[in-house]
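Propose amino acids for all 478 sites.
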């Protein structure tokens, strides 16, 4: 996803967060409200712009969008610039600003932010003369309820250079502590009580342990971008404080900066590498064991891929870059769909006018009783119409009716033409009522044991008016 109005240096995607189908991307150097005023763009999962967020007092040098976090419909956005040093709370369902949080005279306030329910955390990492601190606020009133500092803190530790908040627990990174060895701390957020301090035994000088932090209900994860020259991420049990495992990159070239950004979902841990273009990736790991489950990579070299990313459980991952070249001017954000898929795909098709092959897949449940199946497609040409077709029989017919694709169905074809869909920004989805599947003989109720196949047919203009198909998706029902 790229901004049509992007400018070089906007840093679009340098901060990212995801909630449901909302993707928030910061552009903290956006200049629409003045030099380096900043903005946050909210898109849906298909890349369509929902709203552009700016504070009510937008002004130059605020750096609004430098840090972002979101929980449900509540977003908190940091503006740590010298003319800002604030954090703003928005309701995503309305796009309305709810609160402005600021602390007079506190430098770098808003450099990092976190939100969990009605509680928010705003960090001011300090500098060579001041201690870093994290401020806890009650969002129902906007009042400060706690001030958190390290029990062993000294100036220039950069305590608060990374923070995360979940389930009433706050994890804080201080990557410059002890001349760059680093440390991480776990607190009870409401009381400010320090629960654990973490510095793994094998962390060396200048490893920058604490570069990135996150946690879920069981595990906290901390990045150390220069550990072993390539970086690492460490996981800890937040109940006992015990170190659980260490995640290393594979491959591991020098200056890879693995651990630059870390995120936790309910069952998985995500760790990025940002430093070596050949090996940039985001790894997904089982939160209980640290075993790699999957990895996400750009389709081409992307400057800064993985520098910052957002994730919402098993739903959606967004990863920003800072590539300012060509069509990517101002940066871009790549989306990855994490939703567990059901069934499978088969057959193949031809590229459309976008240069890509249109993709189809199914999510939900294969249970007839659940009646929970959704078909999704993407890589479609924008603003064309189409509809899903089905059959219980697979087949192969090249270029039917002058189409530029392959029909992967045979036998009796049903058309979901009652739901003609506009492809919008290049993607559509349809929830299928499997008790009323259209067939040539009328509506049909799927029964357990049956296999059904679908494709999406769509209009296109590829040198001339034409049409095309996705490849096939197949689901066997239980």
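Proposal:
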């Amino acid at each position: 996803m790229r901004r049509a109005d992007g400018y070089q240096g906007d840093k679009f995607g340098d901060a990212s967060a995801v909630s449901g189908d909302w993707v928030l991307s910061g552009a903290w150097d956006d200049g629409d409200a003045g030099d380096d005023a900043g903005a946050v763009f909210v898109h849906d999962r298909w890349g369509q712009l929902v709203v552009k967020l700016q504070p009510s007092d937008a002004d130059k040098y605020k750096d609004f969008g430098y840090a972002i976090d979101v929980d449900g419909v509540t977003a908190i956005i940091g503006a740590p610039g010298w003319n800002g040093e604030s954090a703003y709370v928005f309701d995503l369902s309305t796009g309305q600003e709810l609160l402005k949080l600021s602390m007079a005279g506190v430098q770098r306030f808003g450099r990092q932010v976190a939100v969990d329910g009605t509680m928010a955390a705003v960090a001011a990492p300090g500098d060579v003369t001041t201690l870093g601190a994290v401020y806890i606020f009650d969002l129902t009133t906007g009042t400060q309820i706690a001030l958190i500092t390290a029990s062993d803190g000294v100036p220039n530790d950069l305590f608060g250079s990374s923070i995360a908040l979940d389930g009433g627990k706050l994890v804080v990174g201080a990557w410059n502590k002890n001349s760059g060895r680093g440390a991480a701390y776990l607190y009870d957020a409401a009381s400010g009580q320090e629960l654990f301090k973490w510095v793994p035994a094998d962390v060396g000088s200048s490893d920058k342990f604490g570069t990135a932090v996150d946690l879920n209900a069981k595990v906290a994860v901390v990045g150390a971008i220069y550990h072993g020259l390539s970086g690492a991420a460490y996981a800890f049990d937040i109940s006992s404080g015990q170190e659980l495992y260490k995640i290393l990159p594979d491959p591991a070239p020098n200056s890879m900066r693995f651990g630059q950004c870390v995120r936790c979902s309910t069952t998985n841990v995500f760790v990025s590498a940002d430093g070596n273009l050949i090996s940039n990736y985001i790894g997904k790991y089982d939160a209980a064991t640290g075993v790699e489950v999957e990895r996400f990579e750009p389709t081409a070299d992307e400057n800064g891929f993985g520098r910052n990313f957002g994730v919402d459980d098993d739903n959606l991952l967004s990863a920003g870059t800072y590539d300012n070249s060509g069509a990517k001017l101002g940066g871009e954000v790549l989306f990855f769909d994490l939703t567990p898929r059901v069934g499978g795909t088969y057959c193949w098709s031809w590229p459309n006018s976008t240069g890509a092959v249109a993709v189809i897949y199914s999510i939900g449940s294969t249970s007839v009783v659940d009646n929970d199946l959704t078909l999704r497609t993407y890589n479609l040409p924008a603003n064309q119409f189409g509809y899903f077709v089905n059959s219980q029989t697979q087949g192969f017919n090249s270029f039917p009716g002058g189409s530029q694709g392959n029909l992967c169905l045979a036998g009796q074809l049903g058309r979901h033409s009652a739901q003609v869909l506009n492809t919008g920004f290049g993607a559509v989805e349809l929830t299928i009522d499997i008790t009323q599947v259209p067939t040539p003989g009328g509506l049909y109720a799927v029964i357990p044991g049956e296999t059904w196949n679908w494709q999406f047919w769509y209009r296109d203009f590829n040198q001339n008016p034409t049409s095309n198909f996705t490849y096939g998706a197949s689901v066997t029902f239980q």
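The first strand starts at residue 12 and ends at 19. The helical segments are 177-180.
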